[in-house]
Every structure is written in C-alpha cells, then in structure tokens.
Specification:
Radius of gyration of chain A: 19 Å
Oligomer: heterodimer
Shape of chain A: globular
Order of helices and strands of chain B: HHHHHEHHHHEHHH
Distance between the termini of chain A: 49 Å
Strand order of the largest sheet of chain A: 1-4
Strand content of chain A: under 5%
Largest sheet of chain A: 2 strands, antiparallel
Largest sheet of chain B: 2 strands, antiparallel
Shape of chain B: globular
Number of strands of chain A: 4
Helix content of chain A: over 70%
Distance between the termini of chain B: 25 Å
Number of helices of chain A: 11
Helix content of chain B: 55-70%
Number of strands of chain B: 2
Strand order of the largest sheet of chain B: 1-2
Strand content of chain B: under 5%
Order of helices and strands of chain A: HHHHEEEHHHHEHHH
Chain lengths: 298, 316
Amino acid sequence: MDIFLQQLVNGLTIGSMFALIALGYTMVYGVMKLINFAHGDLVAGSAFVGLFVFSELLGGQISFAVVLGVFALTIILISLLGFTVERLAYRPLRNAPRLSAVVSALGASMVIQNGIMLIWGPQMRIFPELIPTIIWDIGGVVVSLIQVLIMVLSMLLMVGLYFFVEKTKIGTAIRASAIDQDAARLMGINVNNIIVTIFIIGSSLGAVGGLFIGLYYRGITFNMGWQYGLYAFVAAIMGGIGNIPGAMLGGILLGLFNAFIAGYISSTWSDAFTFILLIVILIVRPTGILGERVAEKV
Amino acid sequence: MMKKIQHIGYPLFFIVMALLPAFLDSRWLAVATTFVIFTIVALSQDIVLGKAGMFNMGQALFFGLGAYTTAICNSVLHIPLLYTLPLAIIIPAVFGILLAGPIIHLRGDYLLVVTIGFNIVFVQAVQNNLGGITGGPNGIFGLEMLEFPGFSAFQEYTPYFTALLALLVTLVVLRNLETSKVGRALHYLREDDLAAGSVGINTRIYKIFSFSLGAGIAGMAGTIYANQYSAVSPEAFDFIQSVLFFSIVIVGGSSVPGILLGVFVMFVLPEIFREFATWRYFIFGFAMIFTMILRPRGIWPAQFGRIPKAFIHRGE
C-alpha cells in the first residue's frame, strides 16, 4: 500500500508535467494538424535557459523574487523562440504538402536540440536548487515541497487555460479555428494571429514544464526534449488530440501509468510499456479517451 | 528526360561504384559501404513512405531486426552468415505484416507515432536483453565474416560488393514495382486512398504488402550491416535513425537520385568535413527547413508513369 501511495504522488507529479507539455502539442495540432516536433526541444531549452537566467543574469542568489524572475524571463524567452519557429519553419509551409511540414518540424527540432548542445555542451548540467528541499513524511509516503508546487501550479495553469479557451473571445476564436480554418476566416477571425497565439501559449506552458523538469529531476541534457516530447505527445493522443481537457487527463494518466510501471515492474521497460499502451488505445479507441467520435476527414 | 537518366545514369552509377574500391583506403571503403547500406534502407523506407504514402517513422526497427536476426543466428546457432540472409529478409517481412496489420487503418500522424513506438519498444527490448540472446546494451560482437566460396582472397571487399549487389537487387525490385499492377495501386493509394478503395483496390492488402516489402529489404540491409561491423548494437537502430531515413526520403523527393543525394549528404559529407562534426545536425536541421520551404515536394521529385503534368494534382 505504501508503494501504491508513493507512486501515486510521484505519478501525479510527473503527470502534471506531461500534461503541461501535452497542451502545447494538442493546441497546435488542433489548429494546424501538425505535430510540432520542436515543442519537446523548446521544453528542454527552457530548462537550460532557466539555468542561464538564474546563474548569469540574476546573479545566482536564491530568493523569492529571483525565482519569480527566472520563471518570468524563461517564459518570455521560450515563447519568443516558439514564435520564431512558427514564423521561420511553419508559416511558409502553411499550404504545402503535409509531409513537407512534418520534415520542416523535424528540422526545427534538430536545430533547437543541437543549438542547445552547441551553446551549453553535450554533458549533463545540474539545474540549481531554486526551491528549498523540504520533505514531509506522511505515514510512510514522502512528499516534497517541489512536488506539491508542481502539482498545484500545473493545476492552476490548466484550469486557467481551460477558462481562457472556453470563456474568452480569443479562446472562442481558437476553438473555431480548430474546427474549420476557412470558415473561421470567413467569420472574420485572423487565423494567422490565432496560430501565433497558440504557439505563444503552448511555448509558455512548455517553458513552465521544462523548468519543472529541471527542478524535479535536477539533471538536464540537451537531448531530453525528444523523450519528454514523445511522452507528452502520447499523452495528448491518449486524451484525444486537439482536445484540451483530454491532454490534461492524458498527461495525468500517463504519469500515473509510468510511475506504477516503475514501482511494480521495472523502470527499464517504461518506454516499451508506454508505447504498448498507446498502441492498444489507438487500436481500441483511435480518437483517444475524450476525443469525439467524428467521421475522419479525408 | 527521366528515361534518359535511367538508361545512362544507372549503368554509369554502378560502373563508378564498382571501380570505387580501387581508389579508397580501408576507412573510406567503410564509408562507401555504409553509404550503400543506408541507401538500401532509405529506398526500403521509400516504398512505404514515398510510394504508398504511409507515414512510417520506424524503418530502423526492420533494419535492426534483420541485423539482429543475422547476429543471433550466427552467434547462438552458428549458422554461416550467408545462410542467415533469407531469414533476415523473411523475419522482418513477417513482422512487417504482423505489426502493420492492426494499425494500418490509422491516419497519417497516428501511424507516425505508433511506428516510432514500435521502434522504441524494439530498441528497449534489445537493450534489456530479451530472452538472453540480444546481448543487452552492448549488443552482439565477434560475428563471422561473410564468405562466398571462391572469393576468400577478396575478404576485405566482400562487405562492399555484397552491399552493392543488394542495392542492385533493391533497384530492380523498385523498378519492377513501379511498372507493375502493385506499383500503380500504391500510387493511387498515396494520392487518395478513399478513391483508390472505391475503384476496387484492396487498400488494406496493398498497404500491408508495401510495409512487408519495405521491411524485407531493410532486413537484407541489416545482414550486410552486421557483416560490415561484425557486430550489432542497439543504438544503431534507434528511432533517431528512423527519423533520418524519413527525412532523407522526403527531402530527396522520394526518387532514386534524390535519395542517393540525401544519403550522401546525411552520412558521407560529415565524414569529409569531420571538423564540423558537432555542427552536423544543426546545419542539417536548417537545410531540411529551407529545402522544404523552397521545394516542398523534395529536391528531385519522383515522376510517375506517363501521366501528363497537367493532370497531376499538386496539392497534397
């Protein structure tokens, strides 16, 4: 039972991070029908930018204001990067064949990933201990302050995003563009601006996710983006791609699944089990858990 | 134009390739062998991705499956390398059918993620030493060399010429495919699989067939790869490798000259400009983006049949 509760806590923590990252994939896919392969690398980049902002720009002394500053500056820099990627790699291919856009996305991913390597080197870097390590032992289950922060903040961000998309005018425009870009354009929605908006929102959430990865795991490598990106994308598909609550649910479920695999079976098999789960879900319910059963667009 | 290139270009290419070892030292011979092997894999990827239009990003799985079949047969069962070749073609081909069967109906991007998934499951299974015969993270080494009776004096050159022979076989298969009923079916399938289905093409069967054929050819390349290094290891078949093959086919335009160029740029140029090794993927990434922006259909787009240009749909 202890293992169960412990892995539940760990799973919810990892799941929150997956969910944050998955939102970036699902929103872009919803509107553009494109897997934004560069998103995972933006997440990895965020951890490195956070490290850089903390130690080079803000002097490396930990205080509440500095931590806030690290988050704010990193989010701004990563959304700028996301914006640039959209402009350079995706916008010129808006009307190109589908596969060309996929390859361009892969190219963008390679550029960012190797850009990180060229700037910060191929070796593992240690993310600073921005949040003090406070650990509570609740009846044998260990919970740390970082875990609580990750879960609470992710939850707040996701609830915020949900209301933004459901209740505001821009949110309505995002949903409209996801359903039918041409019809949205006829209704006076500037779809290009909407795409820029979702890239900025997605990158910001990914940036927070990347900082959380740095805070939680501490060791960061230039090529970790593919790993987290793939997991987050799997989470987005599991929840039903293009569906925002689906990505949150998918992320949490995948986090729990991973934690239980690691707790009860072995962490060396977790990738294999994750993808087997994905394959099973796609065979049984191709539109994901929360995805609507719509006729496939040809 | 295309016909002319085929009639003059291919024999010329093979004559140059056959004479090449005379001018190369052992390091460059190894590079040339790798070039030929990866070309075969990229061509096998082209059957699935370019010809049938299925977003397969797990071709390294079948390449690896072939290599591991050979390695296991040789190291555990002590079968001479040459006789493992049929198995290394059949086992990946069968796996191609088994894996593609349940997922073949998935739409583009879903298929892409699932095939990445297959690739990752394969690599992880091999790394965890499944069944105690895959050698774990280090792989299997110390394999025997490929031996053809009567050619033992040219041991040094066997991997290269076997690879070249396999490339020739692959090109013949591709050519026959293009001019056959299957090739036409695959072409219509890629253009529009709903329309293809409605004119009586059994899309499911043809899709699975192309998967299996691609897997078999990649498996054959795997045997030669295992032979070249006398070893196999999991990271050579990582899904990043699949991503590269995927990109080569699309950037090249899914035509033979385009793919040759793609493999050359991706695997041979880095050997020539070794001082830029760390910049390699950074530059390739930009190259991929700009090629796609400037030539969305690839550097050397494939032509199909004798359809007049005006009838070819230029969109997706």
